[in-house]
Amino acid sequence: MDETVLATRPSASVLLVTLNRPGKLNALTADMLDRLLALVADAERDPVTRAMVLTGAGRAFSAGADIGALESMAPERFRALVERFMALALAIQAATKPVIAAVHGYAMAGGFELAVMADVRIAASGTRFGLPDTAIGLSPTSGMTWSLPRLIGWGRAVDLTLSGRIIDDTEAERIGLVTQVVPAERLVGAALDYAEKLASAPATGVAMTKRLYAESTVGDLEAATRRELEAEMACFGEAETKERFRRFLARKRS
After folding, report:
1. What pLDDT shows up at residue 230?
2. Which residues, 6 or more positions from 192, have their beta carbon under 8 angstroms from its beta carbon?
């Protein structure tokens, strides 16, 4: 059985989902994204599940998609992978059950995007966040052009995406990317406590709050994901992007 994504029940009403590829800093694969999609769908159907906590095993929340796999990936497979990120963003937004991301170590690229998909983000002290995609020739995915400006503001979103600079937990909290920072040893416990508090509230109120916030924003996430997919495919086909992949991997291997 594939154990790259684990699901456990710390309590009857809360589902704890753990990315479990620590040797690769929880780099996300198509199978992992499929598993996450299935877990969100299962939670929606399960009347007992009232909230989800998403975290990562080992030293990182997630370092994003596996660049080594992307370098040699055919465009049609790359498109299918990006579409999974888009589908997960839409599924989490549409879900009536809140998702809390417990982020530690590194949340980079697709890992950053996964954290942003969540309704609430709690970070461990020392966490680093970054979007290095532009530097290697790619553009945002996972509805980031819709969700990130609404979360931290237009200017900061553009800055982080274009510059690819890495920010620490202090800045992430200051700009509103995360709602609280806790010591690393308390991270999962703090996220579970938060989830339990939400799980104890009337389910309809929580669901309606999620829906109203999503519908109150101007614009359409689904349209944003369609635009992003086409932009990302254009980026992926560029020779310069392939060369940046090669150089990035060469630096990692040296």
Report:
1. 86
2. 10, 11, 14, 16, 53
